[in-house]
Design brief:
The chain is α/β, with parallel strands linked by helices. The chain contains 16 helices and 15 strands. Strands 7-8-6-5-4-3-2-1-9 form a nine-stranded mixed beta sheet, sandwiched between helices. Bound molecules: S-adenosylmethionine and iron/sulfur cluster. The site of iron/sulfur cluster has 11 residues, from loops.
Length: 362
């Protein structure tokens, strides 16, 4: 049964120089988009009580509170449902947060990226550092006790000291969750065509990551996935459903979903989506072998790793003998380690996870 839903809000007022997420600047299409989004939800959603509902983007905070209300009321949620909204700092007023809180939204994810105003300018963000702090305080005053900040490391002109300074500010802001993403430039983003000269290289990026893991641990943020850190009890339940290979609905332009063994991607232009919200850009029925590989691939992203008994009973295999050679190789190299329930990547393993995880795939 599907217990999670992701909704993609495909609008941004401008494009950040590093970003390739699907978003459009033409806000005149917002009303039409929301009308069709409601139709799509009514068409596909089976009425299950949701564990998690996640509004991502793009910039969900370009929606009015009343527009959120019209979407949220289409779902069967209760006080146990984790309802997250991604908010861009410049859109985070007290009234907005209070409105969301009153609708049952209980988790806010703010795109901070860095507290360095010079770098924010270089990467074409619309906000400055002060606005992030203001948004955090506004969300707290409105009642939110589960707030996450996103950071990117490896940004132009960024140093390890500068990045740790960002995390130090975050750790003092009374927030519960932090996501750290290594800068990754896809071919279609602005920076790929206009490469900045002062990008930290891969080794510096890896050092930044290791230093950040250490630093956040010292501040009481437990790492529970490659990129995610939380105070006790504040892991993102929505993202954990992905890493646990659970099913989820994907609604909205360019969203992805996973149901009945099928991974699908929605149409990725607003025009196509408005014309035909039932069509998909891609659907792929996974074989049992592919589902197993995804389960390993996603599970090893988590700091607790994979549960071998669960995998054995779900797939009718003997994991330890099926993957004996890979396991021995990477245990010996110190990139994997055994846990009481199975296996997990070590921190060094996380740095070369692409290589290790590829070996679990035929
Ligand atoms: C789906 S985006 C949307 C968040 C929101 N629109 C914002 O920018 O505040 C979620 C996060 O992905 C990260 N991100 C986006 N593009 C990235 C890139 N090219 N490399 C690394 N992280 C990226 C940013 O930290 C961003 O906050
Ligand atoms: S990072 Fe966020 S605000 Fe910037 S373009 Fe991407 S989705 Fe939009």
């Amino acid at each position: 049964m599907v217990k999670s839903a992701y909704i993609h809000i495909p609008f941004c007022k401008s494009k950040c120089h590093y970003c390739s997420f699907v978003s459009f600047a033409d806000l005149d299409l917002k009303k039409d988009f929301l009308k069709i989004l409601a139709k799509e939800i009514n068409h596909f959603y089976q009425g299950e009580i949701l564990n998690t509902l996640y509004f991502g983007g793009g910039t969900p905070s370009l929606l009015e509170v009343s527009e959120f209300e019209n979407i949220i009321r289409l779902f069967n949620i209760n006080k146990n449902t984790e309802v997250t909204v991604e908010v861009n700092p410049e859109g985070g007023s007290y009234e907005f947060f209070r409105g969301l809180f009153d609708l049952g939204v209980n988790r806010i994810s703010l795109g901070c990226q860095t507290f360095d105003d010079k770098i924010l300018n270089l990467i074409n963000r619309r906000h400055n550092a002060g606005q992030v702090i203001d948004a955090v305080m506004a969300a707290q005053n409105a009642g939110f006790g589960n707030i996450s900040l996103d950071f990117i490391y490896g940004l132009p002109a960024q140093t390890q000291d500068g990045f740790l300074h960002d995390l130090d500010i975050a750790s003092k802001a009374g927030i519960q969750h932090i996501s750290l993403y290594g800068l990754k430039l896809e071919p279609d983003c602005h920076f790929s065509k206009n490469m900045p000269v002062n990008l930290p290289d891969d080794d510096v990026q890896a050092d930044m990551y290791l230093a950040a893991v250490e630093f956040l641990k010292s501040k009481g943020f437990e790492q529970y996935e490659f990129s995610n850190f939380a105070q006790k009890g504040f892991n993102s339940r929505h993202n954990t459903a992905y890493w646990d290979n659970q099913e989820y609905y994907g609604f909205g332009v360019a969203s992805h979903g996973y149901q009945n063994g099928i991974r699908y991607a929605n149409l990725d232009t607003i025009e196509d989506y408005l014309k035909d919200f039932t069509s998909k850009k891609e659907t792929k029925l996974l074989t049992q072998k592919e589902i197993l590989e995804e389960e390993i691939f996603l599970g090893l992203r988590k700091s607790c790793g994979i549960d071998v008994d669960k995998i054995n009973s779900k797939f009718g295999i003997d994991f330890s003998s099926k993957y004996k050679n890979v396991l021995v190789k990477y245990l010996d190299l110190g990139l994997l380690e055994q846990t009481t329930k199975g296996y997990k990547l070590t921190l060094q393993g996380v740095l070369v996870s692409n290589v290790v995880l590829a070996e679990f795939i035929d």
